[in-house]
Amino acid sequence: MDNITHSIIGFGVGEVVHRSLPAEADPLSQRVRHRLLLVACALASNFPDLDLFLTKLLPDPLGYLLNHRGHTHTVLWALPQALLLAALLWLCWPSARALLRSSRPARLGLALSVGIGLALHLLMDFTNSYGVHPWYPFDGRWLYGDMVFIIEPLFWVAIGVPMALIMRWRWLRMAGLLALFAALVFFAARGYLGWESFAALLAIGAVCGFAQWRAGEQGRGGLLLALGVSVAFIAVQSVASHAGRARIEAELQHADPSSRVLDVAMTAFPSQPLCWAYVSIQGNGVQYRLQRGVMSLADVMCPAGLREVTQTVSGSVQELRALKAHNCHVDAWLRFGRMPIVLDGVLSDYRFATTPRGNFTSLPVAEQAPCPQGVPAWGYPRADLF
Fold it and tell me: What percent of the chain has pLDDT over 70?
């Protein structure tokens, strides 16, 4: 997910944790704990993305592909990250340090905020089609949720509206609500968000905001409703993704019974469970074929900004095997590539063929020296081709 989404979710969960604990002995301590838990959960919800500083350890594009969503996105590394973040907060925040020495609820709240924040980062990253490998080194396989668009405004609205309404200053509340509304208008105007989804998001925001207003100054009803709506949305997306994948697989198999469908990567449209972009791969042991397109689960018009013309490209299994065996850069790249294709001497992942800034996965297949060192041992997503 994008870091705005990670931050909004972190702030919302931190607020719920704070409001679920017994109050501190005095108002000053209560304010310090409030700020501490919000900051801790928001930071924890972004902390694993510090692996972006490791992308220069390998040549482009391998550094980004293999080190982002790398070791810091594993369960094994969650504990040292939690301890590091807690230590930084302890060392850099004197008033929080004093509170943590004297208050058991504050210590519990900090542990919950950091632990939940880190877990939510891995879970939210799992929901899209980019993938994570959380069980490394015990299991290096990539896991793909294929459920939620990487920038999902539903989380912004459902959680952001209650959070805006509980802000201390009126001007800040208004600024937060206006910023959310402006973001929705921008996405809809650019064709990334359908106007029906726009209206539904406004309704969701209004309901969650009203629930928070009814809950009172110290209530958490709107926030809990927002988190419930978010979980329900992910569940709906999961069901829709599985239904869409099954339909695409059936159509591909019917069109070419001699080839086996190896995988279908599903990418959701923002706040629209009925619209999906997909990239499929099927092969017969000699050739493999990649197809990308858009499908709708019902008779609806998908937003224009993300619609694609169906395109198909083909590759040679023998060529890919030979490149893996004799080109160490290609071998390293294949630890990331889910939909590999070689076109005009360039290896790339077909999932990202139409990104606005070009395909960031592109790697020239001409032999390069020296071989990259320190390549993580992630599993090969397309081991079924080798």
Answer: 100
